[in-house]
Amino acid sequence: MSLTHTDVTRILELLDRAAELDSLEVKLGDFVVQASKPGAVAPDSAAVFQPAASASPAATLVTPNAAPPAETAVQIPEGMVAIRAPMVGTFYNSPRPGEPLFVEEGGVVEADTTVCLVEVMKMFNSVESATRGIVHKVLVRNGELVQHNQVLMLIAPLPA
Predict the structure, then answer these.
(1) To which pathway does this protein belong (predicted)?
(2) For residue 30, which of 6, 65, 58 has the smallest C-alpha distance?
(3) Angle at 11 between CA 8 and CA 13, to 5 degrees
(4) Strands across the sheet with 151-157, in order?
(5) For position 39, what pLDDT does the model report?
């Protein structure tokens, strides 16, 4: 038996709705899903659930003896707007390999413009800019694994 995208989504929704939980760990055979809300302390073995027929927390699929990826703290300069990963996944800076990039450093973006994709289990999720501005810095490389709420790029807002 393996976890499906629907299983993981339901697990994350359960954690998101449970005010009394900050994190959880689900074990299914050799696979482990560890999920925690932003700012939560790393999960311990006290909160273990078996998957049930049941997304915004962070999740990491871990195979045996594998460590979850390390998270890097980013200082957001005053006046900058951070574009963050909506979920754990793979960052892509263009719609398809060989096609033009969504954005480049120094380029202007409008509010609600797609600036990248985050792929999770073959589902591509568009990430949009929340503001009109200049792309100050792209902090991740194409194809890199990103964590929930990780800063992907910084935007210097422009007046409307």
Answers:
(1) Lipid metabolism; fatty acid biosynthesis
(2) 65
(3) 110
(4) 81-84, 151-157, 133-138, 108-109
(5) 61
User: Residue 59: how many CB atoms within 10 A of its CB?
Assistant: 24
Here the tokens at position 90 are 């793979």
Q: What is the DSSP string of 33-77?
A: EEEE-TTPPPP-TTSEE-------SEEEEE-TTPPPPPP------
Spatial separation of the C-alpha atoms in residues 151 and 139, rounded to whole Å: 7
Mean pLDDT across the chain: 77
Q: Read off the pLDDT band of 61 (50, 70, 90).
A: very low
- Six token digits for residue 32: 């482990």
CA 25 remoteness from chain centre: 18
Polymer length of the chain:
160
Residue 143, SS3 per DSSP: coil
Q: State whether the Cα torsion 149-154-156-160 is positive or negative.
A: negative
- Domain extents for the chain? 5-62, 81-157
Residue type, 158: L
Q: Which CATH architecture has domain 81-157?
A: Beta Barrel (2.40)
Please tell me what DSSP assigns to residue 109: E
**Of the candidates 147, 87, 82, the residue with the CA atom closest to the CA atom of residue 115:** 82
Percent of the chain's residues with pLDDT above 70:
74
